[in-house]
């Protein structure tokens, strides 16, 4: 059976869902272009800094769903067809959604850094890694108050845990299937972690230079 056409539709659909410019639209609702304020990023962190927590949490929730929903639909379809590897539709949807968020066609390919959308993808594709990624993010954020450091650590934690679960699945026959994943899941986790790290290259330079701002939310009058 030829799966090229449905996989192409999954990729295009996931990219369009991922490219929905949530943070940019939140800024417009408050009468500003979020790209001209704060860090200039359209992600939830900058929205929270420039606007307020309500808008920041709303942007995070929608960006999270932008990652989870395409993966959920793709894996639902995958369970009904004899495709190998089983994770292929979900992996394509995940990567396309993340690329859509990071490089939206509507904003001249200048999007967010992918943390919120990656979180949704992890829930859909790597549920066993989710608590490790979230836990490491919270821990390093609380210690440093740098969102960038927390995000960088979480992006490294993702492929690390996926690879460990994959190896455990081969070493222990009674290892839960939903934790194990397959070789494509490992590749996807490496690509996701690499993309997030690359999108944070500016933050890394500022951290080394000592100019990276610590997180402080704003309580505006808007």
Produce a short descriptive summary:
The chain is mainly α and 222 residues long.
Q: What would you note in describing this structure?
A:
The protein has 222 residues and is mostly helical. It has one domain. It is built from 11 helices and no strands. The longest helix is centred in the first third of the chain and has 26 residues, at 53-78. The mean pLDDT is 92.
Number of domains: 1
Fraction of residues in helices? 55-70%
Low-confidence spans: pLDDT under 50, at least 5 residues? none
Order of helices and strands: HHHHHHHHHHH
Quantity of strands, as a count: 0
Mean pLDDT level:
92
What is the count of DSSP helices, taking H or I runs of 4+ residues?
A: 11
Say what oligomer this is.
single chain
Main sheet specs: none
Structural class: mainly alpha
**How far is it from the N-terminal to the C-terminal residue, by CA?**
55 Å
Strand content: under 5%
List keywords for this structure.
single chain, 222 residues, mainly alpha
Give the helix/strand layout.
Elements: H1 4-18, H2 22-29, H3 44-50, H4 53-78, H5 88-102, H6 115-125, H7 127-144, H8 147-171, H9 177-180, H10 183-199, H11 201-209
Helix pairs in contact: 1-4, 1-5, 3-4, 4-5, 4-6, 5-6, 5-10, 6-7, 7-8, 8-10
